[in-house]
Each structure stands twice: as C-alpha cells, then as structure tokens.
From TrEMBL:
Stored InterPro entries: CDP-OH_P_trans, CDP-OH_PTrfase_TM_dom
Pfam families per record: CDP-OH_P_transf (PF01066)
Protein name as it appears in the record: Phosphatidylinositol phosphate synthase
E.C. number: 2.7.8.-
Recorded GO MF terms: phosphotransferase activity, for other substituted phosphate groups
Key word Transferase present: yes
Transmembrane regions: 32-50, 118-135, 156-176, 182-199
Keyword set, alphabetical order: Membrane, Transferase, Transmembrane, Transmembrane helix
Length: 211
C-alpha cells in the first residue's frame, strides 16, 4: 500500500514545489517591492484603528490581522526577492512599532470614553512594554547578544489583540467581551517579557568567556 502511494505523494510534492517556484519567479519579476508590502500593512493598521474608534471591532480585527500578515511577509519577500535595502529594513522596523501603537491607542480612547480607566491604563502599559520588548532586543543585539527570548513576541501580541478585537462585545455572534481581558493579558505578558530579556542579557554578558 505504501509503495503504491509513494509515487503519488512524490508527484504532489514535486508539483507543489514547481508551483511555488512559478509564483516566486513571478513575484520577483513583478514591480512589487518589500516597501510596498510594509506600507500596505501600515495602511491596514490605520484602517483597523479607525474601525475601532467606530466600534466596528470584528472588521477592525480582520484589518489588523491582514495588516500584521503583511508585516511578516515584507521581510520574507525582501530576502526571497533580493529587493531589500537597508532603508527598507529601517522602514519595516519603524512601521511595525507605529502600527501596534496606533491600534492600541484607538482601544485606549474607547476605554476612556466608556469610563474604564483601569483598562485604558493597561493599554498605556501594553504600548510602553511592547516598545520596550523591541528596544531591549535591539540594544542586546547591538551588544552582540542574541535576544529573541520572551513570551510576548510580536506574533503572540498580534494573536492576543486580534482575539480581543474579534471577540469584543457585540463584535461577533458569540456574546462575549474579551477585548478588556486581552488588554490586561497583553500588558502583563509584555512587561514580563521585558524582564525576561533584561535577565537574559545580564546572564549572557556576565557569562565567562569561552577559552
């Protein structure tokens, strides 16, 4: 039975690889640039923030997810196509920080309007901590220390905020309110991650040098 399936599986794998190569070649030959993908992601996150302010949480969550996917694709496309540049890498990193902040700022406005002061404060902490998560990694790498440790990496933060938006009160058919709990979780995990990275860097810098 296994021997009968093997050729079929191999053909499927070969055809899949062939299709991926065709798509890759067409993308490389196209006018699409990594910066265009980065700017598209930025625009979608701004749209998400506007939708949050309009309390259209489900649509905001979709826009935030798609925009965040663009953020993951621009770097990969840059490496795959060879179209990347030092400025493109700088632009990508800068826009990533702005995108997360602009959506969370809109969430903070909503909480403030609803009189949820503690939740609004948690959003501020989440924004500051998420910026520090990125900053600690950049500073560590400037010191020659690899620093990708920590629970609240960017993908994890995107998943938490996306879940909170899509499952916010009145956003979906399910009668739940997860935006506020998501913000508290996001703030706590981001702060925890900052300390994880601080202790990681301290341990790395204090470690005895290899003979």
């Amino acid at each position: 039975m296994a021997s009968d399936r093997q050729p079929t599986r191999e053909r499927f794998v070969a055809r899949s690889a062939e299709r991926r190569e065709v798509v890759r070649t067409r993308l490389i030959e196209s006018r699409l640039t990594p910066n265009a993908i980065s700017l598209t992601g930025f625009a979608l996150n701004v749209v998400a923030a506007v939708l949050v302010l309009e309390r259209l949480y489900f649509l905001a969550g979709i826009a935030f997810i798609v925009g965040s996917v663009c953020d993951t694709l621009d770097g990969r496309y840059s490496r795959m196509s060879g179209k990347g540049s030092p400025f493109g890498a700088f632009l990508d990193s800068t826009l990533d920080r702005i995108e997360e902040g602009v959506v969370l700022a809109a969430v903070a406005v909503i909480f403030a309007q609803d009189g949820k002061d503690w939740a609004a404060g948690a959003v501020v902490i989440a924004v500051l901590a998420s910026l520090m998560v990125s900053y600690t990694r950049a500073r560590a790498e400037a010191l020659g220390v690899d620093c990708k440790v920590g629970l609240a990496t960017r993908p994890v933060r995107v998943v938490i905020l996306s879940a909170g938006l899509i499952l916010a009160k009145g956003a979906s058919l399910v009668d739940v309110e997860l935006l506020e709990p998501a913000v508290y979780v996001l703030a706590a995990l981001s702060v925890f991650t900052v300390f994880q990275r601080i202790f990681h860097v301290r341990a790395a810098l204090n470690a005895p040098a290899a003979p």
